[in-house]
Amino acid sequence: MLGKFLIYSATICAVLSIVSFLLVHFGKEKFLKFGRTFYNIAAASVIGASAFLLFIILDHQFQYTYVWEQSNRELGLALLISTFYSGQEGSFMLWTFMTAVIGIFLMRYLGKGDRLEPQVMAVFSLVLGFLTFILILKSPFNYVWDSFAGEVEYGFIPQDGRGLNPLLQNFWMSIHPPTLFVGFSSMAVPFCFAVATLMKNRYKDWINFALPWLLFSGGILGLGIMMGGYWAYGVLGWGGYWAWDPVENSSFIPWLIIVAAIHTMVAQKRTGGYKKTNLILCISAYLLVLYSTFLTRSGILGDSSVHSFVDPGQEVYLSLIVFISSFILISLLAFILRFKELKNLNAEPNKLLTRESALFVGALTLCASAIVILAGTSWPIIAKGSIDIEFYNKMNLPIAIMIAFINGMSLLLKWKTSDEKTFFKGLIFPLILASIVTVGLVIVGVRDFLFAIFALAALFSFFVNAEIAVRVFKKQRDNVGAYIAHIGLALLFLGIIASSKYSKDENITLEINKPVSAFGYTMTYIGASTFEDPNNRKDTKYHFNILLEKDGKEMVLKPVMYYSSFSEGVMKNPDIANFSTKDLYISPMGLVEPEVFGDTDMVVFKKGEIKQIGDVNVEFIDFDMGNMTPGGEEIQSGNFEIGAKIKVKDSKYTETLLPKIKYVEGNPEYFETKMSGNSNYSFYFVKMNIVGEDQGGATATLAIVDNRTKQPKEGDVTAESLIINASIKPFINILWAGTIILVMGFFISIIKRKKEIVS
Amino acid sequence: MNSKLKMWIGGFIILVFGAIAFTVFSESKIEYVDFKEAEKRLRKVEVKGYWQKDKETKFDGNTNTFVFYMKDDSNTEMKVIYEGAKPNNFEVAEAIVVKGKIKDGNFLASDILTKCPSKYEASPEDIKKES
Fold first, then answer.
1. Cβ–Cβ gap A590/B30 under 8 Å
2. What is the number of structural domains in chain B?
3. What is the pTM of this model?
4. CA B10 to centroid of chain Cα atoms
5. Tell me, what's the pLDDT at A701?
């Protein structure tokens, strides 16, 4: 009850906070402290509800449906905490929590000067109100007897929970979603600033105090996206770091817009132009966050993504639509009401060869990329079918080339007026350096024309920024952030070139203990071994050990495959050998065991029946149930072993054999049995067939293989073989380094921009 | 530079970009069709269907391909050759979606999606199991 009560309290206080702040906006100054108090109570309620959710998870209170659905007693602390947000309800709770906390910091920040506090907080409280409202509809605090009313009796407490989806049982699960949600939540701040500006009809100074927030959003969301990429690459085994999956796209699109906004804001700061652009970008960034949430949470993309989506139900679907449409409506209304003022905002026309024009064109290019990705991601809603991911690659390649060139050039241009001669002179040196390296790359093997141009553009941007960074670092350390971010981006681009176009991959079948050479390595599958996973003792996990040799050096890679009882399927994790210039990436694809017998080898026996098979005489005596209880619970569980006792006679000997069959999780395993004096025949017990007593009881299916005539067919696997997809990812380290440097750049810039408003 | 000229240049660039985007877009569309339709298309398509358990289903170690037979919604059966090993959840999948194109009467799949009964959805039976 406590959890639900706190959510209701948060919703009501958020509404009261909106009303109070609006009253302040309309001139009733004394309501300011009410607004603040109501916001604080709303935020405290959200924090309280989150703490309560965490408590019931840690305390294993399985009478709560959410806790029962997402966790169990087996999970270690870190994963147990991450079940907080592994389900839909919980992830809305996390989003709301982050929003509430950010709001507390935001309100203090706004109070430090004339920073549009009532207007910003009115809109921000509305955001919080909507989120808490969704939590009323989609509550993590439902009891099982309410969720399954009529089927589960009142007061019933399950002993254990269902557990966490094995795909999520991973270190990255602890940090990737929270980071992403901080990013998503913080995107509300620029939105609120923009709407507040329109309300206040004052378009100049808001960018000064909004800019650090934009940098924060961009940095943290970028970090979250990057972590997701690494998770997909290193653990989930997608084979790459980016698959243009709807979920990835939906965090990437707002990121592109916010990055565009950062650039045009800097331009407005310096020149006073681009006021409307900034408003539009800040507003659309958050609208796109909401739209993506809708895309990925509403279940409409269920068919076209590797992420598994659960249909959240009609109410949530509708409330998400209401959430988005009201925000679109508010934004449109604000623009319409301020149409006249906005029209008269036109700054003096600027020249093309200036820094601000270049920044604007760059921002437009980023938006073009966002629009392309948005169109591709939304396509499955519009039409039946999907979009080949090649679409994203083909479209974004020329865009990325432009971004790199524009970036390099913009930094050589001056604000407001540029001397053409100095500009062209400045171009020469970095262009020559970039060309030399590009020629080198072409010689090494970059033969694709567009990729060579891309490399040239990235290198150009790299050298321009590196030169400025060194210069700035000596003089004004604070200003170095932007250049560091750009260097990161250039490195990221170079990493993309190397690792996408020039990665090689091959499907390889590794027969056990038989060395195979690929990519200059000798690989030998040396067998599987089990290992313990403290978070999951239910399933037996296997390492498939591959011995890797090159130039006398050896290492063992251990990709993982196991049968997951939770997902009722095989889970696979890759293993990676990380070298300084490349990764050798091994994805397990499957284990193939030779077929020991075919359909023609099957013979069905009744009890006591004698049959002549080739030159042997076989009698089926009885089943051997071992120490199984009759009627056997073991059979229900899918883990049991039975045997078939048979008497085999050839021209010389008579022997009694006991071929067995063992079921592990319902999958049969057969054991070869031979006579000690005659190896011509192999006997397998294949199946016990239950038939009515009137037909003589159960029968046994045996496979009797004549080893003299058994010939493997073309393409048949003749020994236990591991199938892998091996690939070489050249210079992927540059890509990771680039992303980390890029994100660092954002955070360094925040410090600078914060100092600017204080001074 | 006057603003009119700037607008013309800007408009031109947007037009060219839009045209390129449109072309690439229509090339990249993957339509949802059945095997009969797929035969008429030369492009990559998506076909949904059901695995034929009783027909040959095997991994070919020589070509590194996984071969099986699939029947689509309009009961056309076709041999599917997938470049890779048997995908996750293949046996338990309710339905299978293959992406690729038809060549010489076989469907060459570059991608397989397995559609699983939504086991992430909780049911009261599950709860009782735990007690």
1. no
2. 1
3. 0.86
4. 38
5. 86
